[in-house]
Sequence to fold (1189 residues):
Amino acid sequence: MLRLEKRPNPSQFWNYATPVVAVLLTMVAGGILFWVLGKNPFEAIKLIFWDPLFSEQFAAYSRPQLLIKAGPLILIAVGLAIGFRAGIWNIGAEGQYIIGALCAAQMALWFYPAELWIVFPLMILAGAFGGWLWAMIPAVLKTRFNTNEILVSLLLVYVAEKILAAAATGFMRNPEGSGFPGSRNIFNYSAASNQELIANSGLHWGVVAAFIAVIFAYVLLHRHLLGFHVQLAGQAPRAAKFAGVAPARLVLLCLGISGLMAGLAGMFEVAGPARLITIDFNSGYGFTAIIVAFLGRLHPIGIVLAGLLLALTYIGGELAQFMLNLPSAAIQVFQGMLLFFLLALDVLSNYRLRLMRPAPVTAPAPKPSTESV
Amino acid sequence: MMTTPLLSLQGLTKEYPGVVANSDVTFDIGEGEVHALLGENGAGKSTLVKMIYGLVRPNAGTMRWRGEAYEPHAPAQARASGVAMVFQHFSLFDAMDVAENVALGMDNPPPIRELAAKITEVSNNYGLPLDPDRMVGDLSAGERQRVEIIRCLLQDPQLLIMDEPTSVLTPQEVDILFRTLRQLRAEGKSILYISHKLEEIRALCENATVLRLGKVVGKADPRQESARSLAEMMVGQVLHQPSREAAAPGKTLLEVTNLSLPPQSAFGTSLKEINITVRAGEILGIGGVAGNGQDELLGALSGEMRSAREAVRMAGEPVGHIGPTARRALGLLCAPEERLGHAAAPDMSLSENALLTGAYRERLVKRGFVNWGKTRKFAERVIETFDVRTPGAHVAARALSGGNLQKFVIGREIMQRPSVLVVNQPTWGVDASAAAAIRQALLDLAAAGAAVVVISQDLDEILEVADSFAALNAGRLSAPRPVQGLTMDQIGLLLGGAEGDSDAAA
Amino acid sequence: MDLSSINPVVLIASLMVAATPILLAAIGELVVEKSGVLNLGVEGMMIVGAVSGFAIAVTTQNPYLGMLAAIVAGALVALIFAALTQLLMANQVASGLALTLFGLGFSALVGQNYVGIVPPRTPKLDFGPLTDLPVVGRIIFGHDILVYISLLIVAATWFWLNKTQGGRVLRAVGENHDSAHALGYKVTRVRILAIMFGGACAGLGGAYLSLVRVPSWTEGMTAGAGWIALALVVFASWRPWRVLAGAYLFGGIMVLQLNLQAAGFRIPVEYLSMSPYLITIVVLVIMSSSRGRRSMAAPGSLGRSFHAAG
Fold:
């Protein structure tokens, strides 16, 4: 019989090893899933994880996509990770991402078609502000009324989606769009456009922002007292209070930062890869970023790696969809399984598995002779 | 032995990875006997009784119940044999009423109305009256223990195990409990009485087994032994007695005036018009049974709970409205009771835990940025000065034993040179030598001119270190009295809430 | 705009139908939370129930077999959560989210071949003359069997939790798992069973959505119903009858909102359709700000993992 035994010290080895093992196990389980779906598992796994980067046929298109997809994932996940470390669960990043994009788009549309250099910086501010504001709703409700931030932030995703629909079909609709839903093309409005900085690299301002966010988060979490307090509040709330941490301030700070970063991600997306506001503008980055944050062990550097990996599953998934006719939902299942394996293996960081002699725990009437010696 | 003992233990051994909790423990408990199991914290008493109660299975050894093999693999089976247990940390449920709590401890409870009537009847018969409809969270520690005892008695046990039952009782409540236990013995029931309080054992028990480091190191008739000889058996060494130099009290450092606070949780205690004055060089001991406002008082002094501006003064300056960090800056430092999760973060290293309260006072932080090198050195200084047994400052707090972590927590505050130090239960669950070291450190600190407040449920501890004594009862604090000349009876009355200010003036 | 097109009798009758999915999911989650576990995967379990119930009902052309399949499917995905949190000590919040993310993907995968298919009809019960009674007949006696079963589940849950030893043990485990363990109760076993019950209820609720309420399969069709169910448990202060009241209240809001849309009310459709989410938030705020009572009602060990040493 296997038993868990708490380690006196958390295992450093497993702390680093679990994400790797989780990815490998997910590949095995995913392969089985693809096989059940009637696809060649080896081909599917190769298409998802290898071909986007290294196949001559696809890499030219796929490689830049890696940064384009990883940028928003990393940017959002870094913000979430700070909150998750403090035990503050913002799971509504998807909503903050939408609102950030809407605010930035609105800012651009106000100036349209003036070619002023100030437009892009103002959009950045608007996007950050929109995301921050949307995250402040659960934050203020939690600090003022002790309302559960998980439920409020999540419910606000649905509200944001409705606002997005109202914007795309109503107040933000392109007057020259012959009645089709969707805003003006912001990417084509050069003062507002989030262009690729190096041709065919996928590197745009959003990716730059993501890396700045990673450095900021690293310094905050590992060098600054505030980061220590974030961690303390997550691990031992009572000790944090004793240390002098004001829980309410921490909630406002953590939700604020994560909302701001999600809003920024939305801004860079609408001005760049997405090009305009549409009804289905949001593609689930806000939720996938939760997986990214956990896979990266809530560590900024880990999140970079995890963000790139999940970006790869998006791109590879599209490729597999195209080449093997693999359903797009299969990739969603794949990502969900990754999180399951990660959470399951996490136990090894804090517990040791131990093989015990089977004890007759459920034996009805133990005889004296069955004594364990 | 002429008669078969009720329960006979033969060579019981229980090993945990890296620790032998019990090794070859052998003794008998006779019918109608009150048997004491004596030992220090960590001597293996709790593991032993858990084996008897079926919560833990031994690695080796046998138990016999009236001569028959006895191998409980679950508490239900132990209960069916006639073993009942009153836990040290109560196994009660705050948000449920007394009757439901009793029902949960029974294997086939009768309908709840019948049970309630029975509870009223049995509790009155044994002199421990209880109202079955009350919410357990609203009961005092003494009443909660009654719930546990009644729960056991309703099952008509042959052997009643009591784990440190008096640690939560006032001396008067202890007398009531002892009457009940003697009544049970008169009815022919056996009691296994676990304690480290020697006087109690001498008053109650006819046989004692002494455990040290998991082994039986002696058997005795406690009525024939002196408390001192029992203590030496238990501890195995001559104890270092704290020594103190009398210092002339200086100016008033901590002043609490009419401090009142509402309860912080559903079953919390409110503080009512607390007044405290502590001068430099003085140690004030605050006694009281658990749950009478100790945590709340510490929180109000540490700054975790804010009060009126003027309610707390530190060297004359009002601090009631400011938080822990600002109070620390002024020299008001605290060490809470709960080591893991309050005074220290269990999963964090000792370095990080040093930063927890030392950030500003030890200048471990510069413009918000942590100097980790300096932090580690501070932690190492605490470890060295207070003889904390640990491989190093990188070790997680939860890996330390209770005594070592407590030395670290108290040491961390003392190393920051407080002008006022408030500690809650400084030696709870700490082995004797660590406890002596901690008490000595508190005395030294006072001798060096600090004001010290020791909140403790251990009256012996207070009498040992404090200059004056005040009792906390239901959130009210009695007027302090000098410790010299204070009798146990007077203390008991104070703890029970009898104020008697008239003779305090005498 | 034509408000007269809204018939109050139809409104009340249809609110019971609209409320049933969240009622089922919420009563299941109530039992889970009473045992001290916070399973945020309700949305995921619901949608897995919705798709498996739909698939089996379509395949067998029997709605009841579909619902049975949904119960089993819901309990099975809940078992993943139970294994993660109870056996492997994983964080409950993260595991619940994982369950939801996985459930949404899994259901989309399974459901891709069922889009646009009409499921077999779930018949309404006929109480003979009672159903023909004016007003009352339509409201009380005109529903399919699941509406009555859901009411029965609420009543049975209330009775079991409060009047039986089993229910007492479950509450004790949720209130203080250390004490419950010390008394010899199997904390982990009780919790795993509770989680599976919660999954079964959520699965059934999901199937009701895809087989009766809508009835068809679309990707992501639960649209936050699982999260509203979670909020409902807080709203109800962990009391079964209040869950019922809350669910019918929300059912009413959803139906009214749809009716207003149909009546051409002058607010854009998007704003009307966000009202259930906004009202849920408002209700959460009201319930959680009355602190004292809440802390009494919330199970003491809610969300904490339990690991028995030794």
